[in-house]
Amino acid sequence: VGLEDNLYLAKGVKASNEQLVEKAVEILNGLDIEPMTPAEAREKYQLRAPQGGTK
Prior knowledge:
This protein is mainly α and 55 residues long. It has two helices and two strands.
């Protein structure tokens, strides 16, 4: 999720990145899909940990 792709949560309602993540999780939960944790996503897509972060 990123503000570079979407600035609005709804028509005329500007969104923060946190709000966009919350909305994505809400949609996934409504579809009975469990979102991956950041660690799970890094492992699945073979991404490095953020600088200063852990695994």
